[in-house]
Specification:
The chain is an alpha/beta fold. It folds into three domains: about 180 residues, Jelly Rolls; about 100 residues, Immunoglobulins (Immunoglobulin-like, Sandwich), CATH 2.60.40.10; about 220 residues, TIM Barrel, CATH 3.20.20.80. It is built from nine helices and 32 strands. It has an eight-stranded parallel beta sheet. A hairpin with a 2-residue loop joins strand 18 and strand 19.
């Protein structure tokens, strides 16, 4: 039996939905470009047809770590790999799991198509049991990723080269591939909803098949290794709900709440039993915490929280959107906290689930933001809606995620100010988030021109503190106009009675230094306003800007741009390789200090 305690769970591609029996398929795969779309006609999916290139999965061909490393446009890609089913999985149902494949793919096993998927940021699984054979098996993918601007792209540029703050695209497999084994009936999803006011948690378990008679679900709840509850219930339906009393009568504090200061986590094991036999077992966890807003305040566990967020785009120089390894995700969370931030706005990316795991474990608030599409049309609306639903489904249980951001800066809805259809689309995404997940806040169109929203979230990249102060001096005027280039609200919309206010992008101070950045001397760099050359000049500007925001009596937090440099964009606190450009300890002494921050000596 494999121990799925924390050290082993950290190795799993999805730590909050882990099985004991799993096997990684990452590593070297066969690979080919198919620009003329000849692969299907020529039977590239058939066993024995070798592909001419080799790629290191899960790195995209545009990245250095893939072993190919070209930014040329190739809309059709093929992958192949062979595996022998491990002995421990034989005789069981086997799922082939993909963390994410951008953008659409068809999956073949031993020459037969066994499934397909559309959506570049969502995981999917295929039950490959009927097509498995003894000995060696061959899995094959045909992937398409075009320059279509109606698909969610985030910061992946849709033309050749780089532009502004858009970067090299990432095509194909970019998150882990692995096998999992289970019995006749398995757990498809687990949704855990904490209710701290009533000392309860609701568990919704979805099975992947209609259960046989006498199918039972067993719940084993632990905190810090100690058994808190063990409950067994008959599961006569495919979807089953159970509410548990979470009070621990052995402690004075009957609930151990999750917060950045105290990231308490409860471990949950769900077993499916049939005829007394365990046919599936899934390990997950959750945090008891509550997110709400009232009278202009954001509340965490019924207490106001001032959010100090950093914009984080999740790019690495050698691997692009894919982290070079699991430790890189942990390091980014640790660096974010080292700079004194209590949260991150993961910008234009649905991150690898191991990132949110470390936010949960180490205590970091997180905003989950949907990657934007850029062409308003029917396809965009369908694609964005589907991607938002997939995002919430996968990451519903992470206590660190406290807000969803379905649209950023009117990208993909450029005429939203007066266009009723685009306004309806924004409202629909807001309500979609609320319907699927009423436990979190939603920033409807983060930046400006908002329709329905829980947070009036505005962006301002002024380079002087006095300009920030002047822009936000009068809240009523701000919400009626905001700035000359954009309005705070779309036409016909206004702030709700309880909506909170935050400056969710500012700063973006471009800083040039020697070292790794010197490799970019022949590249035109990009940043806001004039670049600073020294740490002293950086702090002069940063402190003036941040002081101006913190002095706003109605503002409940900020999000500084940004954690790392990304390619041509040089306004990070870190170089792309995560070398600090600014002393984190010095920065944190200013950033964390909740009072007396004005003119704080550095």
């Amino acid at each position: 039996m494999r121990d799925l305690g924390s050290p082993e769970r950290e190795k799993h591609p999805r730590p909050n939905f882990a099985r004991e029996l799993w096997q990684s398929l990452d590593g070297q795969w066969q690979f080919a470009f198919d620009d003329s779309d000849a692969g299907l006609k020529e039977g590239w999916n058939k066993p024995g047809k070798d592909l001419d290139l080799r790629i290191q999965v899960p790195f995209v061909y545009q990245s250095e770590l893939s072993g190919i490393h070209t930014s040329d446009y190739h809309p059709i890609l093929w992958y192949k790999n062979k595996f022998v089913l491990p002995e421990m999985m034989q005789g069981k149902r086997v799922l082939l799991r993909f963390g994410a494949v951008d953008h659409a793919c068809r999956v073949f096993l031993n020459g037969q198509q066994v499934g397909s998927h559309v959506g570049g940021y969502a995981p999917f699984a295929i039950d490959i049991t009927p097509w498995l054979k003894e000995g060696e098996n061959e899995v094959c993918l045909r992937v398409t990723d075009t320059r279509d601007t109606a698909q969610p792209r985030g910061k992946q540029y849709w033309e050749d080269g780089l532009m502004g703050c858009w970067y090299t695209p990432c095509s194909g497999i970019w998150q882990p591939v692995y096998l999992e084994a289970l019995g006749h009936t398995g757990v498809k999803n687990i949704y855990i909803t904490p209710d701290i006011d009533n000392w309860q948690a609701k568990f919704e378990v979805n099975l992947d098949r209609d259960p046989d008679p006498e199918t039972y679900l067993e719940y084993e709840l632990r905190f810090e290794g100690r058994l808190v509850r063990s409950v067994t219930s008959l599961a006569p339906f495919k979807r089953y709900e159970l509410t548990l009393d979470m009070r621990d009568y052995l402690r004075v504090e009957t609930l151990r709440l999750w917060s950045p200061e105290h990231p308490n986590l409860y471990d949950l094991t769900v077993r499916v039993k049939q005829g007394g036999e365990v046919v599936d077992e899934v390990f997950t966890y959750f945090g008891m915490r509550k997110v709400s807003y009232v009278k202009g305040h954001v509340l965490l566990n019924n207490m106001p929280v001032y959010q100090r967020l950093i914009l984080d785009q999740g790019y690495w120089p050698q691997s692009l959107l894919t982290p070079p390894d699991g430790e890189a995700l942990k390091k980014d969370v640790e660096l974010t906290k080292a700079f004194g931030f209590n949260g991150a706005r993961k910008h234009q990316k649905i991150e690898d689930p191991r990132y949110y795991y470390w936010c949960d474990r180490l205590g970091l608030l997180c905003w989950g933001e949907l990657p934007s599409a850029y062409e308003f049309c029917m396809d965009e609306m369908v694609n964005m809606s589907s991607a938002m639903a997939d995002f919430i489904q996968r990451d519903y249980n992470h206590p660190s995620i406290i807000a969803w951001v379905p649209i950023n800066e009117s990208w993909g809805v450029r005429e939203i100010y007066a266009n009723e259809q685009q306004q309806d689309f924004s409202q629909m995404l807001y309500k979609l988030c609320k319907a699927l997940d009423p436990t979190r806040l939603v920033s409807g169109n983060d930046g400006w021109e908002q329709t329905w929203t829980d947070i009036v979230a505005l962006h301002d990249y002024a380079h002087k503190g006095e300009l920030i102060a002047r822009h936000f001096e009068d809240r009523e005027e701000v919400e009626a106009t905001f700035a000359s280039w954009k309005m705070s609200f779309a036409e016909g919309f206004e702030r709700g009675e309880d909506d909170a206010f935050m400056v969710t992008e500012y700063g973006g101070i471009a800083m040039t230094i020697k070292g790794e950045q010197g490799k970019m001397e022949n590249m035109e760099t990009w940043g806001y306003h004039d670049k600073v050359e020294t740490e002293e000049a950086f702090f002069d500007r940063y402190i003036a800007l941040t002081n101006a925001i913190r002095e706003l009596p109605y503002c409940r937090g900020y999000c500084y741009t940004q954690l790392t440099d990304v390619m041509q964009e040089i306004n990070g606190l870190l170089l792309p390789d995560r070398t600090p450009k600014i002393d984190p300890e010095k920065f944190a002494r200013y950033n964390i200090n909740p009072e007396g921050y004005l003119n704080l000596p550095i």
